Amino acid sequence: MTTPRRRRYLRLQLAWLLGALLALLLSGAFSLGAYVLLAVLGSVVLDELLISREVEPRWRPRWLLPVGLLAAAAVVAARTLELLAPGVVP
Asked: What's the DSSP call for residue 84?
């Protein structure tokens, strides 16, 4: 059975993910990397706003945030390498 706080967190996370997807699609700027970055950003913001620092929720796996941050770092690194590729800088 889910608690009201858990449902609220999941509804807000789903709304963030769908909103980010819609915004990227409507602006014509969709890429998997941009979506991953927005998803991780939304997760971090929701964690900071909704979850108390004193209590670690049992329903949220401990590995979720570090894995998301690693994925975001990989996207940033790949994009940086694209920008620094030979021929890009005059």
From this structure: T
Dist CA 23 CA 35 (whole Å) = 10
CA contacts within 13 A on the Cβ side of 77? 6
Measured distance CA(40)–CA(69) in Å, rounded: 7
pTM of the model as a whole: 0.64
At residue 44, the pLDDT reads 83
Phi then psi for residue 10, to 5 deg, are -65, -40
- Long-range contacts of residues 20-25, Cβ cutoff 8 Å, at least 24 apart: none
Q: Chunk the chain into consecutive blocks of 10 residues (it has 90) and report each block's average pLDDT, rounded to whole numbers.
A: 77 93 91 87 83 64 77 83 68
Beta strands in the chain (DSSP E): none
Can you tell me the distance from the alpha carbon of 86 to that of 90, in angstroms, rounded to the nearest whole number?
A: 9
